[in-house]
């Protein structure tokens, strides 16, 4: 009986959230597997625990070889973040300084309206912006994927697929 109560409490605390663990393997996990897409959205807020290299792909299709934006958070040993136009592409609009913590969740938002890719700290979209890049030939963002690697695993938390 006590175990059942504990399980119900854990469920209630996490109600409405999707928790995903990513390995130190540099392999993207598509959020559509967890019933969460970017369709009909122009921004996304989330939390992540990682020591370095938490990556987010903003994808036009579910194929990583198709056009996408890659957001690197805490790359280069948690010293630099940037926006890229493809995986491992050139670092655009860099932000210098630590943004991740392995022990506590770091809160971020990403927006992608009209080819303007912006990334910020905390949960309020448009505030505490750390990076912005205006793409002259914008990609249509429909899917999201996350990964960790380069010596770091991660724990991610996002609200469920409801707006």
From TrEMBL:
Please give the name of this protein: C3 and PZP-like alpha-2-macroglobulin domain-containing protein 8
Q: Does the keyword Signal apply?
A: yes
What UniProt keywords are attached to this protein's entry? Signal
Q: Name one Pfam family in it.
A: Methyltransf_FA
Q: Which domain of life is it from?
A: Eukaryota
**The species this protein was found in:** Crassostrea virginica (Eastern oyster)
Signal sequence region: 1-15
Q: InterPro entries recorded for this chain?
A: Methyltransf_FA
Q: Which residues form the Farnesoic acid O-methyl transferase domain?
A: 41-158
């Amino acid at each position: 009986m006590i175990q059942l109560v504990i399980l119900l409490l854990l469920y209630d605390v996490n109600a409405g959230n999707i928790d995903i663990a990513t390995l130190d393997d540099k392999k993207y996990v598509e959020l559509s597997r967890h019933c969460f897409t970017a369709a009909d959205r122009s921004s996304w807020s989330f939390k992540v625990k990682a020591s370095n290299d938490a990556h987010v792909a903003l994808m036009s299709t579910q194929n990583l070889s198709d056009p996408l934006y890659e957001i690197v958070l805490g790359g280069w040993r948690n010293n630099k973040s940037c926006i890229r136009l493809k995986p491992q592409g050139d670092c655009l609009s860099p932000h210098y300084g630590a943004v991740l913590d392995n022990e506590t969740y770091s809160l971020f938002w990403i927006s992608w309206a009209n080819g303007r890719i912006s990334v910020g700290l905390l949960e309020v979209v448009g505030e505490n912006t750390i990076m912005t890049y205006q793409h002259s030939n914008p990609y249509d963002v429909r899917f999201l994927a996350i990964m960790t690697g380069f010596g770091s695993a991660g724990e991610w938390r996002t609200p469920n697929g409801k707006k």
